Amino acid sequence: MSSRLFLLVVLIAASAWAQSAREYYKELYVAGGLDRMADRYVCFDDDPNIKTFFVFAESKYVHEYMMADGTFGKLPKSYQTELKKDFVISRGYDKGVALSAEDFLDADHDSWVSQKFRLDNRTPARVRFTIVFQTLRYKRAVEILNADGTFRSEVARYGRCELVAPGVLQQGR
Asked: How far apart (Å, rounded) are the C-alpha atoms in residues 66 and 70?
């Protein structure tokens, strides 16, 4: 077989092996590799070509879990106070590989927002996460802010979440 034909066969085969975000999620779930603090819901973008997904949990479930297993009372009082607040812990994955650290989003009316950060070292921005729990449809947006912190514009993605099955203990970080 000529080297060009062989290369063509390899490229065609490789594209056939490409996984979807859901397949990457299932692979990580079965291995028990999801972030154990954020593994209540898994969310997938509406665009099937996007290979990223994210998991999240509301702080009330983390608090309840820690109360049930006895670890909450062992935490310093300052941590206990923080865990009683309404926030979301989220972790993103690209092709099944965790992206950076967990994100903590604080309650803001009917959604949760990140701390402000700077795009391109100048433009203030934040992430806003909104979910309709009746349908599990979500919107994740990077909000571009004016210098005074007021809303200017956003770039948003939409999708659907589902509960993570409790069958496999998740031990990822």
From this structure: 6
61 compared with 90, residue with greater pLDDT:
90
Residue range 63-84, pLDDT digits in tens: 888 888 888 888 888 888 888 8
Report CA-CA distances (Å) from 3 to 6, 10, 34, 151, 169.
5, 10, 41, 56, 46
Output DSSP code: residue 73.
G
pLDDT of residue 17: 60
CA distances from residue 76 to 29, 71, 83, 100 in whole angstroms, order as listed: 31, 11, 11, 26
Domains of the chain: 19-163 (2.40.128)
What is each CA distance from 31 to 50, 94, 109, 169, in whole angstroms? 22, 16, 36, 9
- Cα separation of 54 and 138, whole Å? 11
Determine the pLDDT at residue 10: 41
**pTM of the predicted structure, to 2 decimals:** 0.82
Rounded distance between C-alpha atoms, residue 126 and residue 151, angstroms: 10
**Residue whose structure tokens are 């009316």:** 109
